[in-house]
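ok so dumb question maybe but i'm new to this and my supervisor (M.) told me to 'just get the structure for Hexose transporter 1' and walked off. so i did the thing. is this what she meant?? sequence i used:
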Amino acid sequence: MVAKDGSSPKLEPSFLNSVQTIQDPAPLEGIATPKQIDDDDVYVDITEGVGRATDVSKSGRVSSYRSLHRTSSRQRLSRLESRIHPEHAKALLPTTTLYVTVMIALVGSFQTGWLLTQLNYLPFHSVKTCSAVPIKPDTCILFSGHSKNEWTMCVTGWVVGAAFGAMLSSIPADRFGRKRTMFLNAFIMIVGGGVQAIAHDPYVFALGRLISGLATGTVINVSNVLISEISPCQMRGLFSTGLQVGVALGSLAVTSTHYLIGTGDIAWRFMMGLPVVFGLVQVLLMPMTVESPVWLVGQGNVDDAALAMKRLYKPTNYEAILNALVASHEEEQREIAEVQPWAAMVSKKYRLQLVIAIVVCASHQITGVNAIMYYSATIFNNAGITDPRVANTIVNVIRLISVVLVAKIMDKFKRKAMLITGMAVMAVASGSLVLALTNSWSALAVASVGTYIAAWGFSIGPMAWMVAAELFPDYLRANAGSVGTMFTWISNFFVAVSYPVVASEDSLGNYAFLIFLGILVVLIVFIAVVVPETSHKTYVEIAQAFGIQEKSHEAIEGQDPWATPRVSHYSAFNEPTHGDKSATTVQETKPVNMPHAPTQ
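this is what came out, is it supposed to look like this??
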């Protein structure tokens, strides 16, 4: 079904209210006419070229299933799952195309990890070697003789770019789509890597880092949304950990590269320019990916969403699931129309939740994790380790392991218990690191940093944004995520700029991590006293902890989630996907393949 101009039809604002019983629908191009129609069946009026929702319930409406779900604190539901019936989620089995789409999207998270730690290499920068006169061979090899402030500028240029990229990423993602935004963003990634590779002074290099940061902030947000909008319940683990694993693998890869580059000019330029390759990979492979059906439904491109579903998921009752997505979108739009989200966020009703969200998201960084990720080579060198590469590798391996394991245990423990315990271990590790640095105990320094990273990975690392989002109703969670992202990057920048200053010999020196220890103690008290438990609770239950009485949704009774007309009213469901032998039309699918209890 296409419009006269060849484009996909757009949804009318009140399409759900226009569902009619049609005794004899006129045949349209690309849509088969049923041979027989029962009086009880309800069909979509498509005579004006507009795709609308379908239902065969007595109400004549498709119900939104968003109210059936508990908050993501119980089962970190993907954005797709939260909009459809649980039976729909079980029936969506991923195709190879879905896995390819996710893997290509995750190239951006690998690039993030690469850029995060690419400068954490002692021959690139050391205050002692770069300020020496003359500079010794094979030291300070990145723009020999650069100052401490110039180096801080190079490190933080990426942070500033990523902050702006993250905060502005929703604009192109919502306007142009997730797939197209990632495609365009890949060119920014290529430019940033190229500028870094050809730079001949720290200022041009910092500009390249800034551009790369813009690409990083954009891709990490947009890829996260895309994966969340296409991941069925069978891929919940990948949805929960894929981005973090990608970042951890990128950091481990760049640390391993430090063994190979030596001290030559060509070698480090190749390493700095490798994001060009990451960008080219995404540009070349992006045609193999599929746009998010959730976004397409939001744009009114229902037939395009139908085609996307056929490519992403194995044959099932696509139309019932698409109808649920459409109904959920309309319900969400009605909720947003009733309030001003940003005004609601800062209102007295949600003010305490907003403060908690800001503090929790800021604690993701102000506890010092990126002081380690940016400057661990210098930290280990101060502890008496002449070649910190092995220690850095150990730390990144520990980070990768913790990211993988936390997904297995996160739902087995209470949120507050994990946060408080993890941050307490981080505080102890910070104290032991100070002890190791002041006494040049290299083994204790490695153990302390490794313990700190593991504890971070099991607590505030994966939980900051999760807890912040759970404090708000569904229609405010996107805004809460934006605020959390902003304060996370602000805190990241603050740590990146301030740590070299407080860790210098004329300041706190080896005692710098005592600041993070103090911050951790304050945060532990704050979480214990102020932050409510969100684990295994609905939003209504969480709101009661703030003295807010929210309306409880009643369960939908007597609603068959698989109720659809015999013949699809989305043209994509009546035509097999080109080159896909597994694709079937709705007419060809036998009732047994319209699963009420799908095979797992």
